[in-house]
Specification:
Layout (H helix, E strand, L loop, with lengths): L4 H14 L38 E4 L20 E5 L2 E5 L5 E6 L8 E8 L2 E2 L2 E9 L5 E8 L4 E9 L5 E9 L21 E9 L6 E2 L3 E2 L4 E5 L2 E5 L2 E7 L4 E5 L10 E3 L3 E3 L9 E8 L3 H6 L9 E6 L8 E7 L5 E8 L2 H4 L4 E6 L3 E6 L9 E2 L7 H4 L4 E9 L2 E2 L2 E7 L16 E2 L2 E4 L4 E5 L2 E8 L7 E7 L4 E7 L9 E8 L11 H10 L4 E4 L9 H6 L7 E4 L1 E5 L3 E6 L15 H9 L9 E4 L9 H5 L6 H6 L10 E6 L10 H12 L5 E5 L14 E5 L10 H10 L2 E5 L2 E6 L7 E2 L2 E10 L8 E6 L2 E7 L7 E9 L4 E7 L14 E4 L2 E3 L1
Parallel strand pairs: 27-35, 36-37, 37-38, 41-42, 42-43, 47-54
Antiparallel strand pairs: 1-2, 2-3, 3-4, 5-6, 5-11, 7-8, 8-9, 9-10, 10-20, 11-18, 11-19, 12-13, 12-15, 14-17, 15-16, 16-20, 17-18, 21-24, 22-23, 22-25, 25-26, 27-28, 27-32, 29-31, 29-33, 30-31, 33-34, 36-44, 39-40, 40-41, 44-45, 45-53, 46-48, 48-51, 49-50, 49-52, 52-53, 52-54
């Protein structure tokens, strides 16, 4: 994945909490030359008193097991500090960031909340000087950072305080030993520098939309003055406000499938010499109900008049009440979103304390058209009029009369918008996609006209039909899918997948497994960022052991060298080293993993993605590969697999071409590197699991379970075809992908197959990086076979590519077909 701005910083913070060495962001622009940072200026001690009246207790973290939080997002490590009060638990890392926050015994959803100091519009680089417990009761965590190249330090205090919220106070401190500077004009006397900073926060919720009062969920670049920001995902909600007044939140332009972190900071404040700036105070609340509940608990303002309001609950999963401030003239400013599920709140109305003033409310729910805006005081009494509207879709897929998992895509037509089941998956439904289990599924849909498509990966037919949904009425879709592509002897595998253990992948393990089975992936390699994940227990718990094989892995996410997948590993293995190590050390650690030792697979991921691509970071020069290797002592080319086609490029297929050229150059230079294609999926939607996928020849006639050792051996040998739709194979003199022939004339056979809903335009033969032949394809019906006789010399290699220009709209709209084989080599 492209670990850019929000996630680069979040990952760096998490990484640093586990390691002794400080790190920098992983997503630095490739155009910015690295500079040796100046030595930090550590100011002589300037007294900064801790806040008074802190509540609760604090203690060093002895071990992860001693922190009473649950979930795959808990990052507490020995050497961190844990704060506890009123049933709430927070962890401040040894690098000074809030990394965990949740109800005692409950789920943690925090990735990283960083108190930052900004100079100009940039976040200043800092080095942690100390983290310690202070205060009369030693229940405040103090973090001191030296600002690089500046006579400043940045001091933050973490503690529980008023409103039982977690508070963060921060202040900038100027050294008493500041050297005079030359102000610039010739002859001007040196003077002490003027110092001014902006104090704020980098708020990393974990790749979910930030709710901003005044805007709602943020999905694009935004700058806004707001009362609070909030977030809800994976059962835990947070909200944040400033005691000094409204926040000013900035969001950059997000990449497809990712959401930007909020950068806050409202005022530029002076810092007096040998003194401190004004303090900044923010509060963070949490709720296991909704982001709106967390927001209503914020204690930043002086107590204002509030009134008690009753809100109704609905018998619909994900039901919510949206609140908006109103001015009586029909103008609304979106305020908050509160949970309204009967499953959570019961069938009786629930009471909330709402600030005085005009508020409108409406009821919303996944798969429903929103109800009308109504004055909040009348909502409970007018619930029948206020209910969101929907019809019901009953859908099932069968093969030979037996229920099968499938993927449902629903698109609006004739002016009806696409349905939206929410960004966070709910029983397989997210946005306008549903991953279906074997049983019939009932789904709510807003009234309107839709086109539905059911598929099960690239080996099955598709079922497409138009439907019209009326409020309160049922519509049934029965899809009879057939396996129409013969993949005998091959298994489909996705070697690059993320789920909840990754800080940027809010996909629960069960949802990840469901998404894979529904699209016909046979083998899944779990590769979370610097985390070792095993889907096996979840697969068995879901009764899907006959459908999906799990392989344990780790995506080594190095700030300096890029991302590397390592697998198979043992489930209890620790992550590989990723900070302060050279590529050779990462590779050596991979080869030392059990149970396969030197046969452990090492894959280079997305090698040309700027600050997270190994080839970019090494300045790989394929025009002079031998010379580049001679002058690149750090470069290590001892990897097994190269991710040529990453799912992020599926909607911009031209992005695959530069990596194809890199691969060709490596093959020409004698590196028998296996080319792969993987989804790099972080959510259920955006980057679809299994797009692309690897068709790996294991020769067992497709009978499960797949033997892991045989699968690993086939990967290492290159018995692999990458499928972004079509299934393409190549044989030369009877030898297949990854095998070797003798020089001379030989017959080349290319076979391509795909279901009828995938159109193929042409087949290309590529020999030593040059297109040898192109076979146009028109009017395809069933499998294609192309034969030619070619002459080969020592050191040659040949592979086949199948391409199409028409998008595969029944599966993922806008994505054209692209598949390629691994080479047959000439000895």
């Amino acid at each position: 994945m492209r670990f850019s701005s929000p996630f680069a910083l979040a990952l760096t913070a998490l990484a640093a909490s586990c390691a002794a060495a400080p790190t920098g962001p992983t997503g630095a622009s490739a155009s910015d030359p690295p500079e040796e940072p100046p030595a930090p200026v550590v100011p002589r001690e300037v007294p900064v008193d801790p806040p008074a009246g802190a509540l609760g207790t604090a203690a060093p973290v002895a071990s992860r097991e001693n922190v009473p939080l649950k979930g795959l997002r808990v990052d507490a490590r020995t050497g961190d500090f844990v704060l506890s009060h009123a049933g709430r638990v927070a962890v401040v890392s040894a690098r000074g960031h809030l990394v965990d926050y949740g109800p005692e015994g409950g789920a943690d959803g925090m990735v990283s909340l960083q108190s930052v100091l900004q100079i100009g519009l940039g976040v200043a680089a800092t080095d942690v000087v100390r983290v310690e417990l202070v205060g009369e009761k030693k229940n405040v965590v103090r973090v001191d950072r030296a600002v690089r190249g500046q006579p400043l330090s940045h001091v933050s205090f973490y503690f529980f305080g008023p409103g039982d919220a977690l508070w963060i106070e921060s202040v900038a401190v100027a050294s008493p030993e500041i050297e005079p500077v030359d102000p610039g004009p010739p002859g001007a006397a040196k003077r002490l520098p003027a110092l001014a900073v902006t104090l704020g926060e980098n708020i990393h919720w974990g790749n979910v939309p930030t709710w901003v009062e005044g805007a709602g969920p943020v999905t694009s670049a935004l700058q806004l003055r707001t009362e609070f920001v909030a977030r809800q995902s994976l059962g835990t909600a947070y909200a944040l406000c400033s005691a000094e007044g409204p926040l000013f939140a900035r969001f950059g332009s997000p990449e497809y499938g990712f959401f930007e972190a909020a950068l806050t900071g409202e005022r530029v404040v002076p810092v007096v010499h040998a003194g401190a700036s004004e303090r900044r105070r923010i509060a963070v609340t949490l709720s296991d109900r909704s982001s709106g509940d967390a927001a209503l608990a914020l204690p930043c303002r002086a107590p204002a008049a509030r009134r008690r309001i009753s809100l109704p609950a609905l018998p619909v999963r994900g039901a919510r009440v949206e609140l908006a401030r109103c001015d009586g003239a029909g103008r609304r400013r979106i305020y908050a979103e509160l949970g309204a599920e009967e499953r959570v709140f019961g069938k009786t109305d629930r009471a909330i304390d709402l600030p005085e003033g005009c508020f409108d409310a409406r009821l919303v729910a996944p798969g429903h058209a929103p109800g009308p805006w109504i004055r909040v005081e009348s909502l409970a009494a007018e619930v029948l009029r206020a209910k969101p509207t929907a019809g019901r879709l009953r859908v099932a897929a069968t093969e030979g009369g037996k229920p099968i998992p499938a993927r449902l895509l629903v698109r609006g037509k004739d002016g009806t918008p696409d349905p939206d089941w929410g960004d966070e998956p709910l029983a397989g439904a997210a946005l306008n996609v549903v991953y279906l289990d074997r049983s019939e599924r009932e789904l709510f849909l807003p009234p309107g006209k839709y086109h539905v498509a059911l598929t099960r990966g690239f080996s099955y037919s598709a079922h497409e039909e138009d439907i019209e949904v009326a409020a309160g009425r049922d519509v049934s879709v029965r899809a009879k899918l057939e396996r129409v592509v013969d993949t005998k002897g091959f298994v489909s595998a996705d070697l690059h997948l993320h789920a909840e253990p990754s800080p940027d992948a809010p996909a629960p393990l069960a949802e990840r497994v469901r998404s894979l089975v529904s699209v016909g992936v046979d083998v899944a390699v779990a590769t979370d960022h610097n985390a070792v994940t095993d889907y096996g227990p979840t697969i068995r718990e879901m009764g899907l052991a006959s459908d999906l094989v799990s392989i344990v892995g780790d995506e080594v996410t190095s700030p300096a060298w890029g991302h590397f997948n390592v697998f198979p590993m043992l489930p209890a293995s620790p992550p590989l080293p990723w900070i302060g190590v050279l590529p050779a050390e990462i590779f050596a650690a991979a080869r030392a993993q059990k149970p396969y030792g030197t046969s452990t697979i090492l894959q280079v991921n997305h090698p040309r993605w700027g600050g997270i691509g190994y080839f970019e970071l090494l300045r790989l020069d394929t025009d002079d590969l031998k010379g580049w290797l001679d002058r690149s002592p750090i470069a290590d080319m001892g990897f097994d697999l190269l991710e040529v086609y990453n799912g992020d490029h599926s909607r911009y297929i031209a992005g695959v071409e530069p990596v194809l050229r890199d691969w060709y150059a490596l093959l020409d230079a004698g590196f028998r590197v296996v080319g792969t294609g993987n989804s790099d999926s972080h959510k259920l939607v955006y980057h679809e699991a299994g797009l692309p996928r690897n068709m790996v020849f294991v020769g067992n006639d497709g009978k499960r379970p797949v033997a892991e050792a045989a699968f690993v051996d086939a990967l290492r040998k290159g018995n692999v075809s990458v499928s972004g739709g079509p299934f393409v194979r190549i044989e030369v003199s009877g030898k297949g992908m990854g095998e070797t022939i003798a020089p001379g004339e030989a017959e080349v056979v290319v076979r391509v197959d795909a279901p009828p809903w995938i159109e193929i335009d042409r087949i290309e033969l590529v020999k030593r990086g040059k297109t040898l032949r192109t076979f146009p394809i028109t009017g395809r019906k069933g499998p294609i076979e192309q034969r030619s006789r070619e002459t080969f010399e020592k050191g040659d290699w040949i592979l086949a590519i199948a391409r199409g220009s028409k998008p595969m709209d029944a599966y993922v709209p806008g994505v054209p077909p692209l598949s390629f084989t691994n080479p047959v080599f000439v000895r």
